[in-house]
Backbone:
């Protein structure tokens, strides 16, 4: 009898847990759609149904994987500001960042959520260390708060999970979810903070001085750490300024990416998925004009 009671209790707990997850994921979907509509109206940019679906999956899988962290966040979207900085050329600027904070019994951890993938973050840790060290400096020295650790949460799920999702394969999905580690611990130190702030300051000076010289051809040809892609493919092909950029033009001339010559180069609208997204988005979201004046 006691055994049966215990089984019933376990079943009830399981059911409760399942109900909680269903309710939570429904709530996430509802909030996602509300946010999406708000951003679409504010910014005028829409997503194709497929990209929108993938965005929702990114949040749902993040919740499934990071539930413990997501549920223990004590302060979310904490704005950190380092105001009144002066660059070497006398330009004033402010550094701002947004992080999540978890305070447990005796420890405080700062999380920076990025929509990048974990392999990329691991391979380019130095970039994230610099940024988080500035946030740490603000948190510890300006806000006088305690800090015991910093980490990046890389929300973009791995390709293997996407494949399992597309194949609707629960077993593979479970296996890949187990393997996925989106939390990357970032060591923090205050030694390089001044250098990092100076790097920001030099960028401000370049912007204010209208110095926008693009990187060298070599940089465009280099592969980005943690990926198999060249800078030109991962960054330049998504850059709106590429057709007026000397380095990209030079790149197009020396690689065989544009074997069709100038016509192919000028007609390249970017990566095939994004072109498809753009086409689908407009096909799905732009209503046909009902008035001839709308076409003028
Ligand atoms: S195409 Fe854009 S991203 Fe690439 S080098 Fe030129 S300006 Fe920079």
Residues:
């Amino acid at each position: 009898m006691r055994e049966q009671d215990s089984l019933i209790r376990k079943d009830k707990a399981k059911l409760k847990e399942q109900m909680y997850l269903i309710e939570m994921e429904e709530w996430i979907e509802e909030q996602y759609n509300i946010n999406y509509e708000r951003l679409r109206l504010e910014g005028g940019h829409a997503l194709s149904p497929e990209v929108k679906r993938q965005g929702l999956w990114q949040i749902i899988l993040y919740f499934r994987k990071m539930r413990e962290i997501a549920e223990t966040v004590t302060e979310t979207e904490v704005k950190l500001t380092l105001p009144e900085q002066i660059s070497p050329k006398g330009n004033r600027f402010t550094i701002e960042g947004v992080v999540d904070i978890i305070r447990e019994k005796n420890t405080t951890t700062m999380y920076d959520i990025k929509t990048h993938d974990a392999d990329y973050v691991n391979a380019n840790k130095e970039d994230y260390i610099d940024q988080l060290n500035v946030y740490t400096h603000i948190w510890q020295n300006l806000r006088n708060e305690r800090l015991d650790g910093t980490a990046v949460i890389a929300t973009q799920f791995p390709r293997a999970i996407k494949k399992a999702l597309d194949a609707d394969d629960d077993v593979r999905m479970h296996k890949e979810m187990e393997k996925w580690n989106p939390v990357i611990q970032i060591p923090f130190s205050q030694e390089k903070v001044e250098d990092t702030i100076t790097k920001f300051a030099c960028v401000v000076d370049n912007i204010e001085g209208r110095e926008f010289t693009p990187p060298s051809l070599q940089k465009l040809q280099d592969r980005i750490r943690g990926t198999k892609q060249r800078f030109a493919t991962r960054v330049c092909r998504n850059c709106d300024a590429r057709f007026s950029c000397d380095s990209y033009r030079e790149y197009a001339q020396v690689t065989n990416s544009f074997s069709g010559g100038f016509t192919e180069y000028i007609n390249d609208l970017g990566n095939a998925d994004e072109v498809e997204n753009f086409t689908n988005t407009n096909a799905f979201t732009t209503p046909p004009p009902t008035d001839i004046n709308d076409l003028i």
